[in-house]
Amino acid sequence: MSITIKDVEHVANLARLELTEEEKQMFNEQLNAILKYAEQLNELDTEGVEPTSHAMLLSNVMREDEVRASLAIEQVMLNAPDEEDGQIKVPAVLE
């Protein structure tokens, strides 16, 4: 598979880009070089290789969800800038 100048013009049109003839030629060469490099992957023997979605194994690094005691409301209100009726009072953010 190779990219033609017509393909470059089509993609440039979709992206609303105006390209000069030199830019079209440059992008044509670059895109073909990328495809040529990617085609090398077809030469690899992947028989018996299990498909993966990541190069490295991922594991859950989160801690177990455990129920534990929370702070008393009095302790929480010690850190609040202002308090009203047992709730933290903050400046209004809507007009």
Helix and strand layout, with pairings?
Layout: H1 5-14, H2 21-39, H3 73-79, E1 83-84, E2 87-88
Antiparallel strand pairs: 1-2
Helix pairs in contact: 1-2
Provide structural commentary.
The chain has a two-stranded antiparallel sheet with strand order 1-2. It starts with a helix and ends in a 7-residue tail after the last strand. With 95 residues, it is mainly alpha-helical. The mean pLDDT is 90. The chain contains three helices and two strands, in the order αααββ.
**Order of neighbouring strands in the sheet with most strands:** 1-2
Major β-sheet annotation: 2 strands, antiparallel
How many E strands?
2
Radius of gyration: 30 Å
Number of helices: 3
Helix content: 25-40%
What is the CATH top level name of the domain at 5-43? Answer: Mainly Alpha
What oligomeric state do these chains adopt?
A: single chain
Q: What name is given to the CATH topology of the domain at 5-43?
A: Histone, subunit A
**What sequence of helices (H) and strands (E) makes up the elements?**
HHHEE
- Strand residue percentage: under 5%
> Could you tell me how far the N terminus lies from the C terminus, measured between alpha carbons in angstroms?
59 Å
Helix-strand makeup class: mainly alpha
What is the overall shape? elongated
Based on the structure given, which CATH architecture of the domain at 5-43 is correct? Orthogonal Bundle
Low-confidence spans:
none
Provide the residue-averaged pLDDT.
90
In CATH terms, the superfamily of the domain at 5-43 is: Glu-tRNAGln amidotransferase C subunit, N-terminal domain
